[in-house]
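Troubleshooting: if your tokenizer reports a length mismatch, compare your output against this known-good record of 225 residues.
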Amino acid sequence: MAVNLFRILHDERLGELSYLLADPVAGEAVLIDPHSRDLPVLSAMLGESGLRLRWVLRTHGHDGAMPGEFDRLAALRVPVVQGLAREGAWRPAPDERLPFGGDSVQVLQTPGHTAHCLSFAWRDRVFCGGLLAGLTCSHQPLPVDPGAMWDSVTQRLFTLPDETLLFSAHARRARAVGTVLEARRWHPWFARRSRDGFLSHIARLQERADAARWPLPPLTPVPTP
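Known-good structure output:
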């Protein structure tokens, strides 16, 4: 098995996390959920370690709220992997393996937080984007498709070995990583709930948000006068 390098970049103000995986012997790296505003830092991390970027992997995106985000990531001139089809994006096949150096990342299709979410499995960990992030995603606090989210979590994540590490793309004053065992037992949305119970819980949250005019951020920018 290849020697590995693993780094986390956390934007505490926005509660967003990006991840760097690398095989330093082969000199190849992968970025998971990078944001274009962080590219100078990420490029410096790659340069300091003598790494060549092989893939940009996006568990999901909210590009409508961040115009030009995809294009800025595509300017890195490596494949940008995401579930949402668009010109220039690499749409992976289900369970496809993406090689880098002597290693690889496996693609898992896990819609729910957005309609086209992916997760990425690497060794003993899975990078699962907004699936387990609760209300911490400022662009999409509640799932676009609650039924698909339930199925993704219970059928794709909770069936993994108990010790598998789950890394989120969002965290605000909370842990960004836990195990499958912990999430299955104690996650406030999924633990000790049936599918119907989960759907009812999300519906109540949405009703409360609507009644209170909870400011769910739009997925497209609001024009300014």
